[in-house]
Amino acid sequence: MDSSQNGTGPLEDHLRNLILSNSEQPTRQTPPVSVASPIESGPLRGKSGDGDNQQRLGPSQAPLKGGSKKRPNQAQRRQMHAQLSVPIDTRAPGPPHAAKPYVNSPQYHNQHSGWRSSQQGTFRHSGAQHGGSQDHVPMVNSPPYSGSRHHQAGFGQAAVSPSSPQPNWGHQQTPRFDGFSKGVNVVSADAFPPRNRHPSQNSLYNPSGHRQFNFSPEQLANQSALLEQLCHMVIAGAEIEPSEIAEKENFRSYVEAICRDVISHHEIQVNNNRGFQPQTVQLKCFGSLSSGFATKAADMDLGLISPMSQSSPDAPDSPIPRLIEKTLLDVGFGARLLTRTRVPIIKLCEKPNDKLRLDLVEERAKWEKGLHEDGHEVIDDVQDDHEAPDGIFSAADLEAEHTAMNNQRRGSQQHPGNGIERTYEERLAWLKQAETQSLMGYYGNAKRLLRQLRGRDITHSNSGDFKPADFDLLNDVCVAFVNGLYDENLKMRIQRYPSFNPDVMSKLPNFRSLFGIVTMVEGEKLVMLWETTAAIEGDSKLEQKFNHVIHAWKTLQSKRSFGTDPLIFNRELHASLERLRQIPVIQLIQLKQEQYESPTQYHLRTVKIMTELNNTQPSSNLTLLPQVIQYYIAGIRDKHERDEVQDFAASTGVQSLRTIARKHKSLHLAADYERAIEKNLYRDEDLPAINEYIAILRGNLRPPVRHTNSHIIDPLDLVVPVTDNNTALLRRIKQLPDPSRLPPNQPRDRYHDSLEFPKGGIGVQCDINFSAHMALQNTLLLRCYSYTDPRVRPLVLFVKHWAKARGINTPYRGTLSSYGYVLMMLHYLVNIAEPFVCPNLQELAPPDPNLPPEALEGLTTCKGRNVRFWRDEQEIQRLASEGHLNQNRESLGFLLRGFFEYYAQGSMMSTVAKRGFDWGRDVLSLRTHGGLLSKQEKGWTGARTVFQLQTGAPPNPAEIEAATGPLKSPTPADTNNNNTIAAPHATTPTQPEHPPVSPGGPTTPMGGPQHTAAKSKELKEIRHRFLFAIEDPFELEHNVARTVTHNGIVSIRDEFRRAWRIIKASSSGKNSGGGAEELLEDIKVQNELAEKTQFAELLDEIHGPL
Q: Using CA atoms, how far apart are residues 1028 and 808, in angstroms rounded to an integer?
């Protein structure tokens, strides 16, 4: 079939011909695998068009071709499975300027002005294949990559000869199995699909059919130059040093020997697995250190592989993670098993300080005694934002558990936490609001109970599959919620409303929603406030409008109900509630200072309410002002501060809200200083000055000193006086930290882990992952992408640096992981840039080798998933070095410009005929032709919660009894017997170099055995969100961006827009240096400067003009 008829582009045809011709040449390092007959050319397997159902494969889905096959011997199988081993990238850093200049760089125009496109039989990639012609910066005279350009000319990449493999720094790395990719992996002509993009939404209206140009070539060049300069600067300081890599490898080898001894002892002595081979236990490196995208001080990710273990290390009941944790602690390392993460992980550091190690040992002892439930550890998930819309609490993958719970809910159940058996009715009756509990806190308890009963609240995303049993359970919880309200009057008012309790004679159903009930309760509370409080004098029109809003609320409750579609009634309730909330009188009546709300914020909120009441300046209405001051003082949260402000108002008769607030601010600041001093958060030499300043803050307020050039001062406007004698004291105070920003005066960080490792000073840090098979495959895929073009690596490193500087790369704080940003950049380079920078390696996956299905595990399948992609690293490097993998010659700056434009806006882009990314509808899918799916077709339209078994079960008593004695720490002799080496290990003076270890069972901190019964299996909740959607290349049901919350996606999108604004502002070429600094400005430093400014403004407000 003609390639043109099949939609195949010239690049794919050329690449196909290269691979076909390569297969006819003598292969290098081909293992002696007998092939019955050559593999026929056929369509590519695992393409996106095949659907998700082909991603999970079983033995029956890989039929044998051409009759029976001979099973490979052990040496051949070891070579095949070496594909899973991903060595750490040891490409030496190179100077950024060593690369051959790209088309937009000044060096290129000086060196290649006479190049012609007819050279050496090169080919051009037609712009029509990507939806339009290349009309941006002219590409005339753009040279191809010459064959002399090797990887040493790239950013941080060592020279790689096509005939020599990359150096491995894992111990005794088995040779790579390249025979299949060079001998039998022949790519057919039909294996290359067309590269036209199929967006998940229609294009914007464009009557001319052409792109909309917003920038001139000069402006594009200026924008690209800014990013080019910035990228070189970042890369120069981001490369990881070879000495750091060697240090990490030594540590990995030593830890691998420990894990090998622990698992071997457990399998042979406890499980009586006499055929267990210790050398099968491996600790493989994956992640950025192996993919080539590591930066300085990058942590090391290690995957534990033990294929011969009786129970897989990542199984919920496997004792291996806890055994390894204890042994590492006994050796003297800092180790802690995290069980609430997506997969079990051990956080490990080489040289913990004394306090950290004692805390970790104590934490382990608590777990052994059953006193710890891992409730405080930082997890790879986050709580929901209160500002975000409520999502789905369950989904189809919980339907079986949900049905079982519905069948058993009338029976006895165990109440969580105390072991008491409770019936279904008792669990509902247990839902009660405490006297001081807020409505939102009570609502949280109700949602938790609903999840424990395997129920869910109805939302737009799950309404289609809501069953009668779901409504029955939800109705029961809604009724229990109202019955448990602390305010009896409020409860009776709600129960009398037809909207909640329709006429018993009516046969129409009333399917309540928990969100709707909470809305109803909150609105009724506001109505009660209006009715029980004397009306405040004001504008009669406003009062009439207020009465109309109250009447509309009551009418809604009397004439409407949830009915069969509660979502419609929810919307009406919410709209009516918002109108109630906007009544200034109700806002004033409810005026209360929130916990951790500063007096400045409280004062501004009060001024806003008073302004809305008067529609005039607050100081102009003396009738309303006393009542506002009264509500302000009554709403001060701290009782001591409230009493002092009340005494001040009564003794002075001041009727100035600003003066009252100034007294409140001075007292609150003094209290902040006192709490910080109690926690020893200030230096001893600063304490005398702080104590002197506290006395000034608690002193009397006086009229400000009038200067000759100052304006007339309000006689009622009093300040905390500062005389000439203590002016120097105030200057010193301004240089000290703001006490309100210190821990005792700030809300508890829900993401803070009390056992979190410090950033430095504790040696090598790493994570041991107990379910890393797929992670190893992902790492190899990213590594191959890094070889496709020397620009890939610096582009990814720049984006990772930018995301870290702007504070949007912390998954457990609701933003995106570094892996997510790598996939975002690869999506742009594969599918958006024109011509493409990287080919789609999954679409170029060669046909399967002629082997039995079980022999393909790790090559084409992994854990039942399709992991096919073009993984021939040497061939990719060779073709890339010869310039045969793409025809894109754009500079780093130009590609970065397009990257930020694509994700910053959703309209047509300025340099390619494509729209920007649609965050609300699109799913990034690297495997998919075109790179995009829709959330609708993935079923990722609403959040859901799934339940998984908690990992890390303790060893049982049988394992403790099986332990015959302490196991010695690995010695060089032991490790050599296990075909490993004992890596040198730097120890601290406080720990012995080889302390005894005892992995046979749990011990107390003093070393004695602790006999405990195994804890019952616990379920952990995993929250899946799809506000931002990135499909994992292999685990198709996994959203890499599932941790991104409402606040997180707002922050990420704001940062992309901010970056794009800065880039556009550089069009003139002026002030590029300032733009560079602003683009990568560290948000932490920025926030610190803003906090210092706010603190200085607070002191100026308290003390008046000096």
A: 13
**For range 303-320, the mean pLDDT:** 89
For the stretch 1051-1068, pLDDT in tens is: 999 999 999 999 999 888
- Euclidean distance between CA atoms 804 and 521, whole angstroms: 43
Beta strands in 242-349 (DSSP E): 282-286, 300-305, 334-338, 345-349
**Tokens at residue 412, please?**
């006895």
Give residue 504's pLDDT: 52
Which helix (H) or strand (E) covers residue 765, if one does? strand 765-769
pLDDT digits (tens, 9 = 90+) for 471-518: 999 999 999 999 999 999 999 999 999 888 876 545 678 888 999 999
- Compute the distance between CA of residue 1070 and CA of residue 595 in angstroms, rounded to an integer: 47
* pLDDT at site 72: 56
Beta strands across the sheet bearing 282-286: 282-286, 300-305, 765-769, 345-349, 334-338
Q: How far, in Å, are 252, 545, 726, 775 from residue 453 at the CA level?
A: 44, 44, 64, 34
Stretch (H or E) spanning 219: helix 217-238
Residue type at position 374: D
List the alpha helices (DSSP H) in 968-1045: 972-977
- What is the C-alpha separation between 314 and 1062, in angstroms, rounded? 46
Please tell me the predicted confidence (pLDDT) of residue 705: 67
Strand partners, 346: 337, 768
The DSSP call for residue 837 is: S
Measured at the CA of 520, the angle between CA 517 and CA 526, to 5 degrees, comes to 145
Q: What is the DSSP letter of 1030?
A: E
**Which long-range contacts link 748-753 to residues 24+ away (Cβ below 8 Å)?**
750/383, 751/378, 751/382, 751/812, 751/813, 752/378, 753/376, 753/377, 753/378
User: Strand runs (DSSP E) across 381-527, as ranges?
Assistant: 412-414, 421-423
pLDDT value at residue 3: 39
DSSP per-residue letters across 420-461:
-EEEHHHHHHT----TT--HHHHHHHHHHHHHHTT-----TT
Q: So what's the pLDDT on residue 211?
A: 46
Predicted confidence (pLDDT) per residue in 222-264, tens digit: 999 999 999 999 988 887 888 888 999 999 999 999 999 999 9
- Maximum Cα–Cα distance across the chain: 105
Asked if the model's pLDDT at residue 567 lies above 50, the reply is: yes
pLDDT, average across residues 619-628:
72
Q: Which H or E run contains 321? A: helix 320-331
pTM over 0.90: no
Residue 196: left if φ>0, alpha if ψ -120 to 50, beta else—which one?
A: beta
CB of 950 closer than 8 Å to CB of 339: yes
Q: What is the pLDDT of residue 386?
A: 32
Say whether 570 sits in a helix, a strand or coil: helix
What 3 state SS string does 17-84 have? Answer: HHHHHHHCCCCCCCCCCCCCCCCCCCCCCCCHHHCHHHCECCHHHCCCCCCCCCCCCHHHHHHHHHHH
Split at pLDDT 50, 70, 90, the class of 540 is low
Query: Rounded distance, CA 984 to CA 255, Å?
Result: 11
- Residue 620 in this model has a pLDDT that exceeds 60: no
Cβ(426)–Cβ(357) under 8 Å?
no
Q: At what angle do helices 818-827 and 792-805 cross, to 10 degrees?
A: 130
The single residue listed with the structure tokens 């300043």 is: 693
Q: How far apart are CA 47 and CA 798, in angstroms?
A: 31
Cα–Cα distance for residue pair 607/629, rounded to 1 Å? 10
Residue spans of alpha helices (H) in 724-882: 727-735, 773-788, 792-805, 818-827, 873-881
User: Alpha-carbon Rg of the chain, whole angstroms?
Assistant: 34
Round to whole Å and give the CA distance between 770 and 316.
Answer: 11
